[in-house]
């Protein structure tokens, strides 16, 4: 039987950083589902298709083939035979991903892929709807959050460390807008699953969050 850990929560809560670290420690596969939504957004951006063009999206969704590969333990996203991983982490692609992620056809396509991966491997998967929709029977579910001010600060610092100056207030507004979009969409919105454990990391270091989740995992193995 495969073991699955679902980590959901809003932008900048620390999901991917924490999930990557836990995957290494437990020797699980880390699946970044946000990168898949970003790859779809990248495809539509490149082809001049807008999020509100539902008919066009439906017509060309079958032309998109996304696969996931691993270089060591680093996830690579392959879009129609092209490795697009390096293009996905911009704010523009993130904001567009959130818009295209409201589309039902887009979600159904990616959910299939995500469930297939989890059916063959021990996974820690992060996103918005993993515990509520993609893997409702996940062995451990965590809803990871932090205040929008703290999340903006983290993103700002992350950019600064890459040599990019940015406006922290603008980042916070972007984050709030994306949260609203993700929480209020009709299909598979972001919300805490009833059986998910809520972790507010506003005042926690990365190591503290990682250790807490590993502790929950170990307790779950005993019970
Ligand atoms: O994946 P998600 O958008 O939820 O967040 P992330 O990209 O993993 O984390 C955003 C930033 O916050 C990264 O630079 C992390 O290093 C940082 N972080 C932190 O400072 N403290 C935490 N407890 C968690 C993340
Ligand atoms: O790293 P960050 O939290 O900023 O975003 P991400 O995880 O890369 O996801 C980008 C966008 O994709 C999110 O704002 C969501 O709208 C969407 N997404 C989703 O709808 N469902 C998922 N399972 C993962 C991402």
From TrEMBL:
UniProt gene name: cmk
InterPro entries to which the protein is assigned, alphabetical: Cytidylate_kin, Cytidylate_kinase_dom, P-loop_NTPase
UniProt binding sites for ATP: 9-17
Species, as recorded: Anaeromicropila herbilytica
Cytidylate kinase domain ranges (all copies): 5-218
Broadest EC class assigned to this enzyme: transferase
Annotated catalysed reactions: CMP + ATP = CDP + ADP; dCMP + ATP = dCDP + ADP
Domain of life: Bacteria
Keyword Cytoplasm included in the entry's annotation: yes
PANTHER family linked to this entry: CYTIDYLATE KINASE, CYTIDYLATE KINASE/PANTOATE-BETA-ALANINE LIGASE
Localization (cell): Cytoplasm
Protein name, as recorded: Cytidylate kinase
One of the GO BP terms on file: pyrimidine nucleotide metabolic process
Enzyme Commission code: 2.7.4.25
Keyword 4Fe-4S appears in the UniProt entry: no
GO MF term set: ATP binding; dCMP kinase activity
HAMAP family listed in its UniProt record: Cytidyl_kinase_type1
One term under GO cellular component: cytosol
Family label: Belongs to the cytidylate kinase family. Type 1 subfamily.
UniProt keyword terms in alphabetical order: ATP-binding, Cytoplasm, Kinase, Nucleotide-binding, Transferase
NCBIfam families: cmk
